[in-house]
Design a protein that fits this description.
The complex is a heterodimer of chains A (298) and B (270).
Chain A (H helix, E strand, L loop, with lengths): L1 H45 L1 E2 L7 E2 L3 H7 L2 H33 L5 H9 L6 H11 L6 H8 L11 H29 L3 H9 L4 H12 L1 H16 L3 H6 L11 H11 L3 H30 L1
Antiparallel strand pairs in A: 1-2
Helix pairs in contact in A: 1-13, 2-13, 3-4, 3-7, 3-10, 5-7, 12-13
Chain B lengths: L1 H27 L10 H5 L7 H9 L2 H32 L5 H9 L10 H10 L6 H5 L6 H12 L4 H8 L4 H12 L1 H17 L2 H6 L8 H4 L11 H35 L2
Helix pairs in contact in B: 1-14, 3-14, 4-8, 4-11, 11-14
């Protein structure tokens, strides 16, 4: 009797397991085929001398030693990190500023929100085209405005320092509205009573911002910093279209480096090894962030 | 006083934000060689022309690319939202042994993006003979963990009573999902769906690599082919940009509420 019950319980559990996995299968199958499998396959390819046609020859860790002893990989990884360092603080603080500006009931509130957010719905090619022309040293609007203000014009796309700022400005204009909307949603979740209580205590606006608004937005802020760092490390489209990695290789990023090694120079094995190292780097970044966030909370 | 200053700042920033778009449209209607960079040129309406638009429409496959982007976006969005909702139902409403492990597997995609694994993904899609094919773009983008997580959180917030009531009635899981949980999470699914559509529409690097014939390109990858064409003036290029920008701008203006809702869902609860 007991054995029978145990058997039917076990059967029910198995049935339950299968029915749950049946619901997950449509998601899991593409995940396995187009995410997990390529990850493993990439590790395999990275141990070979490989071309687009798949002419393979086992070379062990040769590709890795080649990458790690060559300064190019570090240089382009640093370029990507440099972009993150430039763009993330600007996107987060400008996004917060825009959200604070239009959070309170003001005339044309929705219109302002739409204007700030609008560039986000354009594709990277469109925004790159617009800014490529805006930064044109002769016919571009940016230099015309600078000259009208009595400033000297800048060779935006051919001066190494300015080229980075061209990419940063285009990127900020494109995506800051997204961050703004998230901060707006975060602001709406902060209880009004906190502000009223602070008013009674005679707190200044700066105090209210420091002790109510910022803590209230901390979870949005953490998630956004995380996503913006990942997004920054993925930089490709803007540089591919606007600067082609130039001038020289100043704005060449790690993704573009992998792309050129694999698809332009046809060194698939080497590019796969670069990808694997970059994946490990991304996991490290995620791990460090996770630890930082958790330590602050405990 | 402070209020006025804040409002002025809001207005000034809005003007700065809108200038590049206005500039794109103005230049796209100017005759070749006129960049519309002085006040006189901006306000001179006598020389406006649509010839740049005509040129782009006739000499390129931009309409074809727009159609490809639309089809890929619509199919990707529809399938992604449905399979995410099915998965979310399992994670939110069912208890099973491998739940923890499978959940980590499903959300792991947030950590390593497609961009970091272009080479093996290319190999995989090549071996399935899906390069230069719209399915080669659609299939790898189906398992976006974001939608799964968001719909799961939405379902977690629904009362468990539905589950029990339906089970007593002898309702099966699939019917439960179809007739109760799907309709109840409809607003979340629409918001996420629109968000997915924008993401798919703007997807660049993967279609850039996986599609090589001009007729199969999507809008975002077709547009850069203009740059290799040296004879085109800035005016023609801005007309092409405008044609590429108009569909999403119109969609945004009509579906603003849903888009903003979709975006704010992705960040606040994460």
């Amino acid at each position: 009797m007991k054995a029978q019950q145990a058997a039917s319980g076990w059967k029910r559990q198995l049935k339950n397991e299968f029915s749950a996995i049946a619901f997950l299968a449509p998601f899991l199958i593409p995940l396995l085929v187009f995410y997990i499998w390529p990850l493993l396959r990439g590790a395999y390819i990275s141990l070979h001398s490989w071309t687009i046609l798949g002419m393979e020859k086992y070379v062990g860790f040769n590709n890795y030693t080649k990458i790690l002893t060559n300064s190019d990989f570090y240089k382009y990884l640093w370029n990507s990190l440099y972009f993150v360092i430039l763009v993330v603080p600007i996107i987060i603080s400008l996004g917060l500023l825009l959200a604070l500006l239009i959070h309170r009931k003001i005339p044309f509130q929705t219109m302002f929100r739409s204007i700030y957010f609008l560039p986000y719905v354009l594709s990277v090619s469109v925004i790159s085209f617009i800014w490529l022309r805006m930064f044109d040293s002769k016919h571009g609007l940016v230099n015309v405005i600078l000259e009208a203000l009595g400033l000297s014009s800048v060779h935006w796309l051919t001066n190494p320092k300015a080229a980075w700022w061209s990419i940063v400005i285009a990127t900020v204009w494109w995506t800051v509205g997204f961050v703004m909307v998230l901060f707006l949603a975060g602001l709406q979740e902060i209880s009004q009573e906190l502000y009223e209580a602070a008013d009674i205590d005679g707190a200044s606006s700066l105090h209210k911002f420091r002790f109510i608004t910022l803590p209230g937005l901390s979870s949005v802020m953490k998630v956004q910093i995380f996503f913006q760092i990942i997004a920054g490390l993925k930089l490709f489209g803007q540089v591919q279209i606007m600067t082609n990695g130039g001038p020289g290789d100043t704005t060449n990023t790690i993704i573009r480096y992998i792309y050129v090694t694999g698809f332009k120079k046809d060194m698939f094995g080497l590019a796969a090894a670069q990808s694997t190292l970059f994946c490990i780097f991304m996991l490290l970044i995620a791990g460090v962030q996770y630890m930082v966030v958790n330590r602050k909370e405990s | 006083m402070a209020r006025a200053a804040i409002y002025s700042l809001t207005v000034i920033l809005a003007v700065i934000f809108v200038i590049p778009l206005v500039w794109m449209f103005v230049v796209s209607f100017k005759p070749e060689g006129v960049s519309a960079i002085t006040i006189a040129e901006w306000t001179d309406f006598s020389d406006l022309t649509i010839s740049n638009y005509a040129k782009v429409l006739i000499e390129s496959q931009i309409l074809r690319w727009t159609w490809n982007s639309f089809v890929i976006g619509a199919v990707t969005t529809l399938i992604t939202v449905i399979i995410s909702s099915l998965g979310a139902f399992a994670f939110s409403r069912k208890n099973f042994k491998s739940k923890g492990f499978l959940f980590i597997l499903c959300v792991s995609g947030l950590l390593i993006p497609t961009e970091a694994m272009l080479i093996p993904l290319y190999e995989t899609v090549l071996s399935m003979d899906l390069l230069d094919n719209m399915w080669g773009i659609i299939l790898p983008s189906l398992t976006n963990p974001l939608g799964l997580i968001l719909i799961k959180q939405f379902m977690d917030g629904l009362p468990k009573d539905y589950m029990e009531a339906a089970q007593i009635d002898g309702g099966r899981d699939f019917r439960l999902w179809w007739s109760i949980y799907m309709p109840l999470t409809r607003s979340a699914m629409i918001a996420i769906g629109i968000f997915y559509f924008i993401m798919s529409w703007n997807n660049f690097i993967w279609p850039y690599i996986a599609i090589n014939s001009e007729e199969n390109m999507v809008l975002s990858t077709g547009l850069p082919t203009f740059l290799s064409n040296n004879v085109l003036h800035v005016n023609t290029i801005m007309a092409a940009s405008a044609i590429a920008a108009i569909p999403t701008m119109i969609v945004y203006i009509f579906l603003q509420k849903h888009i903003v809702q979709g975006v704010s869902m992705t960040g606040v609860k994460g």
